[in-house]
């Protein structure tokens, strides 16, 4: 598995430090707001687990599962495989994603959830790849910017592999070429 990585971008220590900074920022911004964190499965699972433990205010959690990706290229279509388990009307929502790439997924999800009349919706993403943005959407909280390369680890996959790498790395091109 490690042999498939061309370059380590962020080590587990660097990630942990930055995730805690974001958690502290969110705790400050959402004091007395009882936010609901909505994780977008599966990519969010490690980031969300670490982030939540750095959030020190009352909050709740829910998850959605969507598919928008085949291999390394976006299909442009988003389908909902698992919806929320509770209503979000009047709630402050924080969408938690692994990576904001073209922005198609989060743009779709944001308008999909807006219909349910939450008090607010913000986006917390582990990674932001601004070079590839197609939709008019930005992250309210982002841990790191990444270059225009395919990255894996810390929850991010290539064809369901590499999610368990404890760091974030660039996948060798020969793996997906
Ligand atoms: P979007 O293009 O912003 O809609 O990205 C949708 C999804 O594509 C993300 O939530 C990731 O699961 C996946 N994705 C985009 N870029 C990468 C990458 O570099 N590595 C792994 N997954 C990616
Ligand atoms: Mg993915």
Describe this structure in words.
This protein has 177 residues and is of the alpha/beta class. The chain has a single domain, classed as Rossmann fold (3-Layer(aba) Sandwich). The chain has 4 helices and 9 strands; from the N terminus they run βαβαβββαββββα. The chain has helices at 12-29, 45-52, 104-114, 173-176, and strands at residues 5-10, 36-41, 60-70, 73-82, 92-100, 120-128, 141-145, 151-152, 168-171. The strands form 2 sheets. It has a 6-stranded mixed β-sheet, with helices on both faces. Helix 2 links the parallel strand 2 and strand 3. Helix 1 crosses helix 2 (45-52). The longest helix is centred in the N-terminal third of the chain and has 18 residues, at 12-29. The protein starts with a strand and ends with a helix. The mean pLDDT is 95. Inosinic acid is lined by residues 43, 68-69, 74, 97-105, 150-152, 156.
